[in-house]
Structures are given as structure tokens and as C-alpha cells.
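Q: Give me the 3D complex with iron/sulfur cluster.
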Amino acid sequence: MNRPGPAARLNELTLAHNIPAALTIELTRRCPLSCAHCYLPETRGRSAPAGGRELTAGQWKRILGQFARAGAIQLAFTGGEPLLRPDLEELCACASGLRFDVRVYSSGSGLDRSRAGALKSAGVSSFELSLYGRPVTHDAVTGRAGSFLAVMSAAKLLKKAGIAVAFKTPLMKGNVRDAAWLLALAKTHGCRIYFDPVISPANDGDRSNLRFRLSGRALSAAVRTIPSLLPRLPSQARKPAPSDFLCGAGRNVAAVDPYGNLSPCLQLPIKIGNLLRTPFTTLWRSSPRLRKWRELNIGDLPECGGCGLLPVCSRCPGISLLERGDVMSSNVPACHMAAIMAGGPALSEAGGCQSPFNVPRKASMRSVTACGGCAPSTSRKSALPR
Ligand code: SF4
Ligand code: SF4
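A: Here is the predicted complex, encoded as C-alpha cells.
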């Protein structure tokens, strides 16, 4: 029998004790790019960037101290584009001084030699750079000519400075044909590359970016050609027990937006409270909404509880909330991916789970009302009171 490795054991330990091991900080919603699939309405011109209300470096430093005292281990700065914050290096230095493993998620736009060196001196361990395809594909997705050259230049500068680089690639209709080319490019540059076929609706509920999502059939065909597109399951993957947690959101991961609002995960922007008004530990230990969220288990899932694909499914409750207004529902990308992981073709495009393995429980959708602010709703806006 495979025994869990150190990373899996650390994951189990932090989950069991609600230790906020990995935190994501959105420093800004501003971005010089305008990526077609972006989930931030600000980058699509539907909402004014709220630059003036972003937390200051001093405010963030106080919050970083609270995270350190709560036992956090890993910190990722993201955006928008975090390089737009001139104090990024100062914040990274503060975080690494508190002994966090510090990571940055970026498009690479605006990075030069001097900033790459300063970020290395500030203790950044790794960068994840968004990369969408060949130059013409990448620039078409970002809406900015020259953005491919910018990301590749950033990758070289960061590597030269001694910072590890990985590429992140959402797989879409417009770039799936470039997947093999991207794999080879990443190999040439000595970088890892992660593909993700899940394009989620935007934070304001707009679903227009879903037109870029691969159909289940196209995803299935892509995986047949390039099997490494499939996510790897942990070697000790087992059938989840009814008492298992839904995921790490609000247990060992959490996220903060540029204005100090705490949520269980970047992908699950349910507002728990604001860190300018309430200390992190108070919210983490005592928030009634977080407590209710943590009470939900696999056994409470009305559609997935009886599904034979559960052991290979990486259903994200945040995507379920966006797709179907219910954190407890199945969702189309998860069902497709699970079917492919199980070695079958993708499921019907009809929506909801069409899996022949699935025997839905008779639980009512009302089970989700246990989750406070995540009550079932067809509109994400009403599902997520702010
Ligand atoms: S499954 Fe979704 S909500 Fe849960 S931790 Fe992962 S990304 Fe966050
Ligand atoms: S395959 Fe679909 S129904 Fe089955 S566990 Fe995953 S999301 Fe739920």
C-alpha cells in the first residue's frame, strides 16, 4: 500500500486542524492586459478599477503578521497584475521575513532585470506566469500586441535571477491546438507547465467568457492526443468517505481581495469579513459563516454522493456556485474531466451530471442552506451577499 508522502501528510494535518497553510492575496484588480477569458469584470471594462481603495503596504504588513501568527506557511501574491504595485518587492520581503514561502502569479508584463533581481532579494521562491499559446494566439487572448514577448522575457529574467518559473495555461477553444507546442516550449526553457480546462464565469456573474470553454468532446480529443494534459491524482487516491471535507477552502486555504475582504478561497469568493475591521484569527476561529461551511461534507452532496466517479473527480464547489448557483451541485467541467480520468469519453453537453455511474441521492438542494451565504440561487450575485 502506498503511504502518503510528506506533502500529503502536511495537507491532511492542516486540513484536520484548520491551519491556514496557503493564502492567496490579490494585491490589485488592475491589469495592463484584457484577457478574453478573465473572470475579473475590472479587466473587461465592466467595472472601474478601484485602485484608490487598495490596501496600502502598511495595512498589508499588519495582516501578514496576523497570518504568520495563525500558522500560515505559503503566500501567493496575485492580481490583476501584482507587478503594477510598486511595493510588491517590499511586501514580498516582509512575507519572507515572516518565513513564508512566497510566490507570485503574474502575466510578466512590466518585469525588467532590476525588478527580477529585487524580487529574488525579497525572497520570492517561484513565479507562475500565464501563457496562452504561440505568439499570435497569446497576443490575441490578452488583447495586447507584444505580450507573448513580455512573458517569455520575464521567464528568462526570473530564471536568470534564480527564481523558479512555471507556466499556467487555461485550455480553450482558441489555444488547444497549441498545447503540444507549449509543452515543448516549457521543456526547452526548463519550466513546468500546468494546463487547466476550467474556464469559469466572471465574478459579476457574466457568462460570456464560457464561449471559449472547450466542449467535453474537444477536451476528450485533446487528452487522447496529449495524455499529460490530465491532472495527476495522488498515488494514494481513495474513494472519499461521506465524512470527508468538500475541499481545503476555509480549512487550509483562504484568500484576501485587494480591499481586505477574506474568503475561503480565491475560487470561492464568499465574504467572511474584512481584515481592516476584524483580525484574521477572530474571523478564522469565530465566523458563523465559515463554521457552517466547514460543517458540509461529501455525504451531504445531493448529486455527487452516489457517483462512481467521485474518487477521480476534482469538483470545485466554487465552480459549482458559479455554474449552477449551488456550492453542493455537480458541475459540467468536473463531470467531463472525471469521465475522461476514468478512461471514458466526455459526458453529454447537456449540463448537470449525466454520468452512468451516478445514482443521485434524494437529498434536497436545500441541504446547502447550511452554508449561510451560499444558499442556492440561480444568480451568483444573490448567492454571495457582500
Ligand atoms: S476545490 Fe475550488 S474552492 Fe476548494 S480549495 Fe480548490 S479551488 Fe478552492
Ligand atoms: S463526476 Fe459529476 S456527479 Fe460525479 S462526483 Fe464529479 S461532479 Fe459530482
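A quick observation: The longest helix spans residues 147-161.
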